[in-house]
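Troubleshooting: if your tokenizer reports a length mismatch, compare your output against this known-good record of 155 residues.
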Amino acid sequence: MAGTLKCMDAEISHFLEAAVSGVVVNVASVCGEVAYCSPPFLYGVSKAAVISATRQAALSYAPHGIRVAALDPGAVNTTLLRGGRSPTDPVWLATRRSLEAMIPQSRISEPWEMAGPITFLASDTGHGQLRDGRDRHGGRGFRAERPGREARRGG
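Known-good structure output:
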């Protein structure tokens, strides 16, 4: 969480000092919204904090043309999810099959698959997809305009 806050501070400070609009996209997790993710316990807590910080920053900096959003992916094939095991470790492969059986699409995402949604959320196209803190594509954030005002274009 500390790293996310430091990055947001640097990014938003840059946008404000340069008097330009901009976009910040944080990566949270579905574990920040549900209680069934385990272990580690603090992972879900920290991702919930990322979601909350994203919401607060989105509302605070929208008047400056700065959009802040977060991607909340489900299971992603990372070293943390694998418990430090190699992608070919038999224990991990058995665990993976169990996890995939619980996922509607029966698959765990790969890290590279996050690039597309992050790029989308950072784009002008992604700007119009955010509504009341939840978009249609797994991300979270708020529109850069307030009700009754013209939309502000973020860069």
